[in-house]
Design a protein that fits this description.
Helix content: 55-70%
Order of helices and strands: HHHHHHHHHHHHHH
Shape: globular
CATH topology: MetI-like fold
Protein name: ABC transporter permease
Strand content: under 5%
Largest sheet: none
Main location: membrane
Keywords: Cell membrane, Membrane, Transmembrane, Transmembrane helix, Transport
Membrane topology: Multi-pass membrane protein
InterPro entries: MetI-like, MetI-like_sf
Length: 314
C-alpha cells in the first residue's frame, strides 16, 4: 500500500523557482579556483612577458660561449664557431691572478653579513612592532613608511660623508653597515608577524611560564619562516646587485664586489693601452647570476607562501 506524501512549502517554492523564466540550474562543476576561466589575451600577455624576461638570459648564455672575435662577427642570439664556454670560465677565474674569485668571496661576505644581518634585525623589529604595545608606536610606523619611500641612492652621499669622518671608507664595513638597514624588510615582517602569530598563542606560552626569548625562538620563529625567507631573498638580491654604494665607498680593487669588478673589466677597453676582455665580462656576468637563480629555485615555495600571507581573511 503506497502512501502519498504531500509536498511541503519548501518543495513547492523550489518547484516554482525552477519553472521561472530565465532560471538556470547551477552545474556541479563551477568555475573557481580549481577550474578557472581561461583568457586567451592573458595567456598571450604572459607569454610575451616570459619571452621578454628570458631573452637576456638566453643572450648571456649564448654569448658566454663565444670567443672575443666571435662576439662581433656573429648573430647575438645564436651560437657561432667553437663552443668556448668552459674555456671562458677558466680564463675568467684565472685572469689577473684570480681576482674574480676574490670579488666573488667579497660579495658573499657582504651578503652573509649585510643581508643576513638585515633579515635578522627586520625579524626582531617586525615581531616587536607587531606583538608589543609601547608609546610612540604610531610614530615608528610613520618613520618606517617614510623610510621605505626614500631611495637608497639618495642616502649614499650623506652616508659616505659620515663614514669618511669615522674613517670607515675603503673598508668592508662601509658596505656591510648600510646594508643592515632594510625598511621594506622591517615593514614586511611587521605585517607578516601580525597575521602569522596569534595573540592567544603568546598568552598561552606566557601562562605556561615561557620567557620572551624562549617564546620568540621556539614558538614564533618557526611560524615566521615564510616571511623570513621572503625578506632574505629581497635583501640578498639588493646586496648582491649593489653597485652605487661600493662605487663611492671602495677604492681598493681587492674589496670590490662582483658588480664593481666586472664594470672595471668592462672599462678596460676604453682606457689607454687597456685590454678588451668582453668575453670574460659576459662570462663573469653569467657566473654572477647563477647563485641568485639557484637561491630562487631552492626557496621558491617559501617565497610564494610568504608573499601570499595575509591575503585571505579567515
Amino acid at each position: 500500500m503506497s502512501v502519498a506524501v504531500e509536498p511541503t512549502r519548501t518543495d513547492k517554492h523550489r518547484t516554482r523557482q525552477r519553472t521561472k523564466p530565465g532560471y538556470v540550474r547551477m552545474k556541479s562543476t563551477r568555475r573557481g579556483v580549481d577550474n578557472p576561466k581561461r583568457s586567451v589575451l592573458l595567456t598571450v600577455l604572459t607569454g610575451i612577458v616570459l619571452i621578454y624576461s628570458l631573452i637576456p638570459l638566453v643572450w648571456l648564455f649564448i654569448n658566454a660561449s663565444k670567443t672575443q672575435a666571435d662576439l662581433f662577427t656573429s648573430f647575438g642570439l645564436w651560437f657561432s664557431g667553437d663552443f668556448a664556454l668552459f674555456g671562458n670560465i677558466g680564463d675568467t677565474l684565472a685572469y689577473d691572478d684570480g681576482i674574480f674569485g676574490r670579488w666573488f668571496l667579497n660579495t658573499v661576505l657582504y651578503v652573509v653579513l649585510g643581508a643576513g644581518g638585515a633579515t635578522f634585525l627586520a625579524v626582531l623589529g617586525g615581531y616587536a612592532l607587531a606583538k608589543f604595545s609601547f608609546p610612540g608606536k604610531k610614530a615608528v610606523f610613520a618613520v618606517v613608511i617614510g623610510a621605505v619611500a626614500v631611495p637608497g641612492t639618495a642616502l649614499a652621499v650623506p652616508t659616505f660623508l659620515m663614514f669618511s669622518e669615522m674613517g670607515l671608507t675603503n673598508t668592508p664595513w662601509s658596505v656591510i653597515i648600510p646594508s643592515l638597514i632594510s625598511p621594506f624588510g622591517l615593514y614586511l615582517m611587521w605585517t607578516f608577524a601580525s597575521e602569522a602569530i596569534p595573540t592567544e598563542l603568546l598568552e598561552s606560552a606566557r601562562m605556561d611560564g615561557a620567557g620572551e626569548f624562549r617564546t620568540f625562538f621556539q614558538i614564533c620563529l618557526p611560524l615566521l619562516g615564510p616571511g623570513i625567507v621572503t625578506v632574505l631573498l629581497f635583501t640578498m638580491v639588493a646586496t648582491w646587485n649593489n653597485y652605487f654604494l661600493p662605487l663611492i665607498m671602495l677604492k681598493d680593487p681587492a674589496w670590490y664586489p662582483l658588480t664593481l669588478g666586472l664594470n672595471a673589466w668592462n672599462a678596460q677597453a676604453s682606457t689607454a693601452g687597456g685590454e678588451a676582455i668582453f668575453n670574460l665580462v659576459i662570462t663573469g656576468s653569467l657566473l654572477t647570476i647563477l647563485p641568485l637563480i639557484a637561491a630562487f629555485l631552492l626557496l621558491q615555495r617559501y617565497w610564494q607562501s610568504g608573499l601570499s600571507a595575509g591575503a585571505v581573511k579567515e
